[in-house]
Amino acid sequence: MEKLTVVSAKIPEKVYKELLLRIPEGERSNFIRKAIIEKLQRTPRPDKIFELEQKIADLEDDISKIRKSLAELEILTYEKGKINPHVFCIDEIDHNIIDYLLHYKGSTTTEIAKSTGTNRWMILNRLRKIEKRSRKQLGKAIVEYYGGQRSGKKKAWWINQELIET
User: Fold this and answer.
1) Separation between Cα atoms, residue 151 and residue 159, nearest integer Å
2) What region, left, alpha or beta, does residue 108 occupy, with left being phi > 0 and alpha being psi -120 to 50 degrees?
3) How far is Cα 51 from Cα 41, in angstroms, rounded to an integer?
4) pLDDT confidence tier of residue 70, bands split at 50, 70 and 90
5) Phi, psi at residue 83, to the nearest 5°?
C-alpha cells in the first residue's frame, strides 16, 4: 500500500453526525479515503480536458478550411448568379430584408427598418447574421456593409450581385 498522508477537512456537523451513525469507528478513515478516490475517478483531469479542447479546436479549424475550400470550388463551378439569397434567411423578417435589398440593391438599416416596420437595431443584427451565415457556407458574404459613399448612399448594406441568382 502507498504511503498515506493526513488530510484535514471541515464538514457540516449534520454530515459528521450521520457519519458517526452509519460508519463504525475503526472504518471511518477507509470510508472517507474510498469516497475521495471514487470522486476523483469520476472527475476528469484538467490536462486531459485541455488536450481534448485543443483537439476539438483543431478539428473545427480543419472543418472550416474544408468547408471554405468546397464553397470556393462550388462558386467557381457555378455560373454567375446561381445562389438564392433567401437560403440564408431564417424567418419572415430576414426574407423581407433580403427582398428589400434585392429590389433596391443596397440600403441603410434605417431605410430597411422603415419599410419593414421593425427596429433598426434588429435589422442590423439580422444583416450581420445573414452575412455571417453566408460567409460560413459560401466563403463569401451575400450581403456586405460599406461605410463609404456608394450609389448615393453612405454607410449602407449591399447585396453581392455576383453571387445571387437573377
Assistant:
1) 13
2) beta
3) 18
4) low
5) -105, 130
